[in-house]
Design brief:
This protein is an alpha+beta fold and 316 residues long. The chain is 22% helix and 24% strand. It contains 6 helices and 11 strands. The strands form 3 sheets. The protein has a 7-stranded mixed β-barrel with strand order 1-2-6-9-8-7-5. It has a two-stranded antiparallel sheet with strand order 3-4. α3 runs parallel beside α5 and α3 packs parallel to α6. The radius of gyration is 28 Å and the shape is extended.
């Protein structure tokens, strides 16, 4: 069984519910070590002071807050411990809110909550009440030395808590020039909506694959087995090159709509243009999504007896 990363109790009114917290996701990123090409040994880093080469031991290292170039306020661990959030084993419920009131931008990392051995019926009662209410519980607790905000909600027969960002951690669109301020033409909007309809499908998370990761792992596996010289197919994705050329917006939308499989004729949309059969295409896309049909990722790693072939020199 997985190891809990936090244990304590949910405080719900005068009810105390012992729980354990477990990660709800796994990291599948490919992590490489840095190796010296000449020595074939792993690269290690030493902590040294600027301008010197003596390795600094841990007991000589303190934390510093830069207040100017080359000027720092120094803090030791004792000072930080006094300032740290008070360590408790309680997860305090602050509010109950509607989930659709929380922008996904505030969510950070998901975890599962499981009842501890002595939780009794209190955990089941909290789950049932929360599910019936249709709301999520906003909670605050201390994890490590940080005060954490989170949202507890029923999910797939259990309880999920997602840590949340505080309001001052979320960047506003206008601060980076991302706020919409352009007037949209009705005809363009109608075609864009047809494209969305044509590409609409039921969400199936198993449909989407990290093809790059699968390709790299397949290559590493064959390379580790020493199965002769390997050739990487540079055209593995069969994806047309996007030139980045700026096109007429209407022309680009209509071309995209055709590519989505809509082009069977029908009634005329806004602007008097012939309908491109978006609704029929939408049905086809939904059917494909339900059947799980999608382009399967390919590792595209092959063996070669002769010298490696570059792009454009593939065998006919």
């Amino acid at each position: 069984m997985a190891r809990a990363i936090w244990s304590g109790s949910i405080v719900f009114g005068i009810v105390n519910i012992p729980i354990q917290m477990f990660p709800a996701v796994r990291d599948h990123d490919i992590h490489f070590n840095q190796i010296s090409l000449k020595d074939k040994k792993r690269i290690r880093y030493k902590k040294v002071a600027e301008g010197g080469d003596r390795e600094i031991p841990a007991d000589e290292i303190v934390k510093g807050w830069q207040v100017g170039k080359g000027h720092y306020i120094v803090l030791d661990d004792g000072e930080l411990e006094k300032l740290a959030a008070r360590k408790t084993r309680t997860m305090d419920i602050i509010d109950f809110v509607d989930l659709d009131q929380i922008d996904p931008l505030y969510f950070d990392q998901p975890y599962y909550l499981a009842p501890a051995e002595n939780a009794g019926r209190s955990f089941d009662l909290f789950f049932a009440a929360l599910e019936k209410s249709g709301r999520v519980a906003i909670a605050q607790w201390v994890m490590r030395t940080k005060e954490v905000l989170g949202a507890i909600r029923p999910l797939n027969g259990g309880l999920c808590i997602e840590t949340m960002r505080y309001a001052d951690e979320v960047v506003k669109p206008e601060d980076v020039g991302a706020k919409h301020n352009v007037e949209v033409k009705e005809r363009e909007l109608a075609i864009a909506q047809q494209l969305i309809d044509a590409m609409s499908a039921d969400f199936d998370p198993t449909k989407y694959k990290d093809e790059y990761r699968e390709r790299v792992l397949a290559y590493l596996d064959q390379k580790a087995k020493g199965e002769g010289e390997l050739v990487i197919d540079e055209d593995w994705g069969d994806q047309p090159e996007r030139t980045g050329k700026v096109m007429d917006l209407m022309a680009a939308l209509e071309e995209s709509l055709k590519s989505a499989g809509a082009g069977k004729g029908g009634s005329k949309p806004a602007g008097g243009r012939k309908s491109t059969g978006a609704h029929e295409a939408a049905g086809e896309h939904k059917a494909a999504a339900r059947s799980g049909s999608h382009r399967a990722p390919r590792a595209q790693v092959s063996h070669a007896k002769g010298p490696a072939r570059g792009k454009g020199s593939r065998k006919k």
